[in-house]
Amino acid sequence: MDVDIEDILAELNTDSTAVDYSGNNNPLSDIANTNVSTLYNSSYPDDKNIPTNKNPPGVRSNTKISAEQDYSSLMTLWRNERCSPELLPYPHHLMSRMLMRIQDQLERLEIISMDFMGQNSNTIDNSNKPINNNNMLPLLCMEAELERIKFIIRSYIRCRLSKIDKFSLYLRQIEQDSNLKSLDDLLSKDEMIYYQRHSEMILKLFNDTTLKHLPPELQAINDTTGTISMIDEPDWNKFVFIKVIGPNDKMLNSDPLLKKDSNNKFFYEVIIPELEEDVELFIDSIYVMRYNVIKNLLLDGKVILI
Amino acid sequence: MYCELANKLVVEAKRTEQLNSRNNARTTLPVHNDELVRNVLKEVTQLKKNLEFFKEQQDIMSTEGISVDSNVMKCQYFVNLLCLERNKRCLLGYQKLRSDMLDSMAWENNGMDVMGSNLGEENSNLTHQEQEYLKKYSELITEMKSGELTDIDLSGSLIPPKEVFIDVRVLKDAGEIQTEYGVFNLIKDSQFFVRQSDVERLIQQGFLQKI
């Protein structure tokens, strides 16, 4: 008779790993982890002021926060932002944590390299033997890693800024429409400033060069009553490549949207409105889909763009 | 015909766009076509006068109670209005393309070391409104960099970093330039093996070549 004891074993495992985690871990990530938790606790009350309707993928208050996890969710956000036609909500919590971590790491790097300099001068004082014992490798790795993370954030922000430029009139429409979600949710503080000042500037340029020569009824820059609407909306029907990854925590049975087919595979069902056609999105497979069809799944973090 | 000049303006805008997409080095802005724009604006004022005239006519007719072919009048009015709209579209499109190019210029060589010099060579090609815009936009970018994102150099390279150390060759500029991470004596045609993050700015400025 077969007795399935997987769950009992899993229980035992959770106990032992808890001990393991605290004991063995390389010192660097350990420092990072402790720092992160304190950082997170300290920064959380500030962040609570920002209203968030939906948590972006990876930023969940109940999940444990680690540097590694944050990094992977940042990668996902970056990829989504670059591929999606619309501006996605700004991850306030994640970014503030990430920026703090970068600052921390920069300081630590400086201190470590100072130590190196000190040691070097000491050894030179003693004798001129070559210094092999203090290895530069960790320092180099840390620097390279920092450069990479900075690159990702830079690229992410630049991508968002270009989208803000493109959709500035549309964003203004959102701002004026009170029943849509607020811009604070969508943009960070800096991006807000950028958006306001840049649209002001552009408006001034257009006013000075052309608009003031036109009759007053044609002077609006956001005219929708003319033959062509002047407000650039995101192309909601753009085709994007998606990968279905399923719910974040892999608890397949807890997700109400998931369904099971005859082969015991899980899938989401979405409907393409124009064709009135149902599509089954199986987990772990890749599709080309219209953006508006999968928008809600994307915001819930159940699919990612590639 | 109506709007022919504006069409020319758009064609010119298209050509500059193609030129810039082909040689992907640096965006160069051609001279602002002042004369053409002025002619289009002249046409616009003419159309504007027409519109006013039609309005007056309609008013007179309605007060006098004459209902002579009001449909024809409406049609005339409408054609004029559409022409005005089309001119507006063309003018704004031309201006928008130029301002977009100014934006990319501002991002490309912003705040590296010499901020003031981006108003140097292209000076003659810009109208003074555009110069003002460019100056303001550069200010905005520098402000963005000093905000929350201090540690992230927003105008830095958008090419992902590959190696920590790279080989660079000095192109044409001599003299000691970089002083941030220690002094490099940049002698012409000499090569260095340096950290990438140190020289990124110099590569963007065109002092160094070859990664």
UniProtKB/TrEMBL annotation, chain A:
<feature type="domain" description="GINS subunit">
    <location>
        <begin position="128"/>
        <end position="208"/>
    </location>
</feature>
<dbReference type="InterPro" id="IPR036224">
    <property type="entry name" value="GINS_bundle-like_dom_sf"/>
</dbReference>
<dbReference type="InterPro" id="IPR038749">
    <property type="entry name" value="Sld5_GINS_A"/>
</dbReference>
<keyword id="KW-0235">DNA replication</keyword>
<comment type="function">
    <text>The GINS complex plays an essential role in the initiation of DNA replication.</text>
</comment>
<dbReference type="InterPro" id="IPR008591">
    <property type="entry name" value="GINS_Sld5"/>
</dbReference>
<protein>
    <recommendedName>
        <fullName>DNA replication complex GINS protein SLD5</fullName>
    </recommendedName>
</protein>
<dbReference type="InterPro" id="IPR021151">
    <property type="entry name" value="GINS_A"/>
</dbReference>
<dbReference type="Pfam" id="PF05916">
    <property type="entry name" value="Sld5"/>
</dbReference>
<comment type="similarity">
    <text>Belongs to the GINS4/SLD5 family.</text>
</comment>
<dbReference type="InterPro" id="IPR031633">
    <property type="entry name" value="SLD5_C"/>
</dbReference>
<dbReference type="GO" id="GO:0000727">
    <property type="term" value="P:double-strand break repair via break-induced replication"/>
</dbReference>
<dbReference type="Pfam" id="PF16922">
    <property type="entry name" value="SLD5_C"/>
</dbReference>
<dbReference type="GO" id="GO:0000811">
    <property type="term" value="C:GINS complex"/>
</dbReference>
<feature type="region of interest" description="Disordered">
    <location>
        <begin position="43"/>
        <end position="63"/>
    </location>
</feature>
<keyword id="KW-0539">Nucleus</keyword>
<dbReference type="GO" id="GO:0006261">
    <property type="term" value="P:DNA-templated DNA replication"/>
</dbReference>
<feature type="domain" description="DNA replication complex GINS protein SLD5 C-terminal">
    <location>
        <begin position="234"/>
        <end position="306"/>
    </location>
</feature>
UniProtKB/TrEMBL annotation, chain B:
<keyword id="KW-0539">Nucleus</keyword>
<comment type="function">
    <text>Required for correct functioning of the GINS complex, a complex that plays an essential role in the initiation of DNA replication, and progression of DNA replication forks. GINS complex seems to bind preferentially to single-stranded DNA.</text>
</comment>
<comment type="similarity">
    <text>Belongs to the GINS1/PSF1 family.</text>
</comment>
<dbReference type="InterPro" id="IPR036224">
    <property type="entry name" value="GINS_bundle-like_dom_sf"/>
</dbReference>
<dbReference type="InterPro" id="IPR005339">
    <property type="entry name" value="GINS_Psf1"/>
</dbReference>
<keyword id="KW-0235">DNA replication</keyword>
<dbReference type="GO" id="GO:0000811">
    <property type="term" value="C:GINS complex"/>
</dbReference>
<dbReference type="GO" id="GO:1902983">
    <property type="term" value="P:DNA strand elongation involved in mitotic DNA replication"/>
</dbReference>
<dbReference type="InterPro" id="IPR021151">
    <property type="entry name" value="GINS_A"/>
</dbReference>
<dbReference type="Pfam" id="PF05916">
    <property type="entry name" value="Sld5"/>
</dbReference>
<dbReference type="InterPro" id="IPR056783">
    <property type="entry name" value="PSF1_C"/>
</dbReference>
<dbReference type="Pfam" id="PF24997">
    <property type="entry name" value="PSF1_C"/>
</dbReference>
<feature type="domain" description="DNA replication complex GINS protein PSF1 C-terminal">
    <location>
        <begin position="162"/>
        <end position="210"/>
    </location>
</feature>
<feature type="domain" description="GINS subunit">
    <location>
        <begin position="59"/>
        <end position="146"/>
    </location>
</feature>
<comment type="subunit">
    <text>Component of the GINS complex.</text>
</comment>
<protein>
    <recommendedName>
        <fullName>DNA replication complex GINS protein PSF1</fullName>
    </recommendedName>
</protein>
